[in-house]
Amino acid sequence: MVETTTGTRTENCAGLPLYERRPEGQDKYTISEVATLTGLTAHTLRWYERIGLMPHIDRSHTGQRRYRNRDLDWLDLVGKLRLTGMPVADMVRYAELVREGDHTYAERFDLLKSTREDVLARIAELQDTLSVLDRKINFYADAGQALASERAS
Amino acid sequence: MVETTTGTRTENCAGLPLYERRPEGQDKYTISEVATLTGLTAHTLRWYERIGLMPHIDRSHTGQRRYRNRDLDWLDLVGKLRLTGMPVADMVRYAELVREGDHTYAERFDLLKSTREDVLARIAELQDTLSVLDRKINFYADAGQALASERAS
DNA sequence: CGCTTGCTTGGAGCGCACTCCAGGGTTTTA
DNA sequence: TAAAACCCTGGAGTGCGCTCCAAGCAAGCG
Fold it and tell me: Which residues from chain A sit within 8 angstroms of residue B141, using beta carbons?
């Protein structure tokens, strides 16, 4: 199978991925299963690992990756942070803090709080943009009305 | 002056740019003035023009750009759209529609409306992310509490 | 007049986040 | 057991949005 994001993906009526997580204990996924579950490509998953964005990923006896539920949880978080526009390098930094252990709690806390502020700021920006957009949309709606009544007269 | 965004920029106490727009009729700005007003670099302004993102910009008798208030308005809109994550190519498309004249009103309207939908979706995503972030922040706050009381005992 | 500063152009370069390739080994299916 | 599908690695390539460079013209100042 050619590696792709847009390949055959089983979906339910709501368009949500149907592939389900396996219960704790039997949670072993190949890279392409994780690609299906996360929407990332296998390429990207390997690349995330290379740059240090992932925790240690288990391997099968022949060296193939076997992801577990906690890895999916991590990828969910990464996906969310990516949506906020956080640079990958910053996420790598956070991943490093997690790997370094409990004594980095304070730093992680600070990082999360400042990310939170960034997200709030971005939401505010977007709402500002939304109002500009609405003004313009109203303008065009009015202009459309004017043109229509012109044609009608 | 070396071209930069972070150079000397006059600011008021609120950190807002103090450079003011000139009244209609005397509204002529050099490229570096526009850079100051918009926060873009002169490089970027010229690049925007090259790729077709700008309307026609007036020139002085020696060929230097002389921006006008309407150009600043346009750059404000571009800045807002950029914040939504809209690709520059799409903004160029919008600019083309504006240049093509009144008969593109309908298409511009549609473009604005679908952009509006995108912005709403992004806001929803960010709010979702925010709640994940808040859960994690609470977790770390609790963990911090636990560590503190451990040290106290 | 020379000096500094700013503006002009086409084209090259950069950083980010992937995205893909070559060449090989493994696993599943018919 | 053989073909098809999948997985591995290091490294090269891509697209976007700038960002900068070289070489030259122009305006203001002492």
Answer: 109
Cα separation, B44 vs B66, whole angstroms: 16
Residue A28: C-alpha distances to residues A12, A60, A101, B107 (Å) = 23, 10, 25, 49
Q: B49: Cβ under 7 Å from strand D?
A: no
Note whether B19 and B2 are within 8 A (CB): no
A95/A44 Cα distance (integer angstroms): 16
HEC-encoded secondary structure of chain B: CCCCCCCCCCECCCCCECCCCCCCCCCCECHHHHHHHHCCCHHHHHHHHHCCCCCCCEECCCCCEEECHHHHHHHHHHHHHHHCCCCHHHHHHHHHHHHHCHHHHHHHHHHHHHHHHHHHHHHHHHHHHHHHHHHHHHHHHHHHHHHHHHHHC
Residues in Cβ contact with A107 at an 8 Å cutoff, skipping those fewer than 6 apart:
A97
pLDDT confidence of B151, banded at 50, 70, 90? low
CA B144 to CA B140: how far, in whole Å? 6
Mind listing the pLDDT tens digit for each residue in B66-124? 999 999 999 999 999 999 999 999 999 999 999 999 999 999 999 999 999 999 999 99
Structure tokens at A65: 């990756």
Q: What is the pLDDT of residue A149?
A: 64
Would the CB atoms of B116 and A130 count as touching at under 8 Å? yes
Point out the least confidently predicted range of A28-32, B15-19, B83-87, B148-152: B15-19
Residue B147's identity, in one-letter code, is L
- Looking at residue A87, the DSSP 8-state letter turns out to be -
pLDDT tens for each residue of A95-152: 999 999 999 999 999 999 999 999 999 999 999 999 999 999 999 888 777 766 665 6
Out of B113, B119, B128, closest to residue A126 by CB = B119
